[in-house]
Amino acid sequence: MPWSNRKAWVFDMDGTLTHAVHDFTAIKRQLGLPTHQPILESLRAMTPARAEPIEKALADIEYEIAGEAEASPGCEALLQRLQEAGCRMGVLTRNTRRNALRTLEVSGLRSYFEDDWILGRDEAEPKPDPAGIHHLLEAWQIPARQAVMLGDAIFDLQAGRAAGVLTVYVDQEGTFEHRRWADYCVRTPEEVETLWAGVG
Q: 41 with 9, same domain?
C-alpha cells in the first residue's frame, strides 16, 4: 500500500517526536528502582501503597524533563504534510498525559494533535499493549492496514505489531537494535516524509 494511503498515524513522543533526553538508568536510581527492569513494570510489581509515592515522584521528574523538550529534526514538516493530507494523528506515550501535553507545547508541536488523541499511561494500557492503538483506530474508524506506528523503543514497535499496523523504527543514533520488530527503519521523521513522497 502506498504511504499516501496511510490515513492514521500514531506517534510515540519522547525520542520520536522529540529528542531523547531521558536518562532512564539515572531516573531508576533516583527512585530506588532496579536498573535491569523498565520503570512501569517495576511499579506494577509493587503493592499500590508502595508504588503510589514513587509514581508521583516519577511524574514530577518527567514533568521537569518535559520543560526542556525539543522537536526532532524534520518532525514538524512531516506533521504538516500529514495534516494537509487530512490524516488522523495521535500520540501514545508511556509518560503521563499531563507531561505529554507539556512536552508537545514546549516543543512547538501541540497544535498538530487534538486533546482526545493524546493518550498517556493512564488513558490506555501502556505499550507494548496495543490497547491505545486500538482505541485510536476505533475512534477514527480507520482499519489497521491504513495505520502507522512510529516509535524509538521496542515497546512502540511491539505495540504496533500487535495492533497489525505498519511499524516505523525511529533511531536517531542509527543502530536499530530492535530492527526485527520494524517494517521500516529511519533516523529522523524527515526520512518518513521522504518515504511519503515516494522517493528512495
A: no
